[in-house]
Amino acid sequence: MTTSRKTNRDHAKKKQRPMVEDQVIAEQLERLLTPAITNQENYYRKLGLRERILNLPLMMAAVLTLLWRDVAGVRELTRMLARDGFLWCNPTQVSQQALSQRFLTFPYSLLEKVFKDLLPSLRTAWHSRNKRTLPESIQFTLNSRRFG
């Protein structure tokens, strides 16, 4: 008696490709983050972290690239860094083990301080965006349907 074999898609190898980097968004992120990263360099040194290849700007770019471009893991991130670089970082050859180890030991407080430095500029941008008039299609939708 033969039975058909069903494959469980959850266990099949997923073919995930990172999204393509949008140059306009990358430039906007660089313009927004560079002052915040520069402000935290003294704190970076105070924690005893040396200026090395995997420094604060590169690690910030790595974290943002992982999230923004939906990178599958550190191995793919290492390949991307070696092949193309990402955001404001030039192509750099590092081992996957070095990048993995750096992620494990990188202090989250640095990321937190950089993002807290960004909050005032993000609030300003949000308030200026709220003052713009909404497109007609959105106004129509908001007026015809009451959400909540």
TrEMBL record:
<feature type="transmembrane region" description="Helical">
    <location>
        <begin position="53"/>
        <end position="71"/>
    </location>
</feature>
<keyword id="KW-0812">Transmembrane</keyword>
<keyword id="KW-1133">Transmembrane helix</keyword>
<protein>
    <submittedName>
        <fullName>Transposase</fullName>
    </submittedName>
</protein>
<keyword id="KW-0472">Membrane</keyword>
